[in-house]
Amino acid sequence: MAVGIRLKRMGRRNRPFYRICVMDQHTRRDGRAIEELGFYDPVNPEKGKHFELNEERARYWISQGAQPTETVASFMKERGIELPSRSAKRRAKKKATK
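Predicted structure:
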């Protein structure tokens, strides 16, 4: 099962609000999540209050192989969560097949 960390849209029209969720990559955007890790509020003007993330659980899911989307990866990078590079994963995969 391929697992990803991505945004799930909530809120109303013209007032978006997103939850940062762990989901199967085949699940639709607003479908059922495996786990919710935090939220992102793009309309909130306060810097630092526009998103929240459970860093411990995010690190756990990254260690289990979950792939964050570009937006979620930028949030994790802002919080100092180390993400494995895609090129390192390719090298490891090639090494395993030899």
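Summary: The two ends are 24 Å apart (CA to CA).
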